[in-house]
């Protein structure tokens, strides 16, 4: 899944393999090996890739956004109560709150 996600996101952002390799300080064939699934990046390289592509590591690895999943869990958990002035909160408001919590409490989301 990671190789496919990596290639798809890179192409969506109209970036070349050479650009990615240059930004990561590796050769183009080394980068290409990530997209082909022949090689896996180490933790620091994975962080760098997520920063270059401006996506979470979770999205790179799994193809989904952990914030979306957390928002969904919060909204669908009957034991969780999040209330605004009128006692209800929209999905967008929950997402914004979660993003704020993650940014303030945990730094960069991944």
Automatic annotation (TrEMBL):
Keywords: DNA-binding
Keyword Phosphoprotein: no
Pfam families: HTH_3
Superkingdom of source: Bacteria
Residue span, HTH cro/C1-type domain: 6-60
InterPro entries: Cro/C1-type_HTH (IPR001387), Lambda_DNA-bd_dom_sf (IPR010982)
CDD domains registered for this protein in UniProt: HTH_XRE (cd00093)
Keyword Ribosomal protein: no
GO molecular function: DNA binding
SMART domains: HTH_XRE (SM00530)
Protein name: Skin element transcriptional repressor of yqaF-yqaN operon (Xre family)
């Amino acid at each position: 899944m990671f190789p496919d996600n990596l290639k798809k996101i890179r192409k969506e952002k109209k970036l070349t393999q050479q650009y990615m390799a240059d930004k990561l300080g590796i050769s183009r064939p080394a980068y290409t090996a990530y997209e082909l699934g022949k090689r896996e990046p180490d933790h620091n390289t994975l962080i760098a890739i997520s920063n270059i592509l401006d996506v979470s590591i979770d999205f790179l690895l799994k193809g989904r956004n952990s914030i979306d999943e957390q928002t969904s869990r919060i909204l669908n958990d009957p034991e969780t109560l999040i209330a605004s002035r009128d006692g209800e909160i929209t999905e967008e408001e929950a997402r914004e709150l979660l993003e704020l919590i993650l940014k303030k409490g945990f730094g960069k989301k991944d």
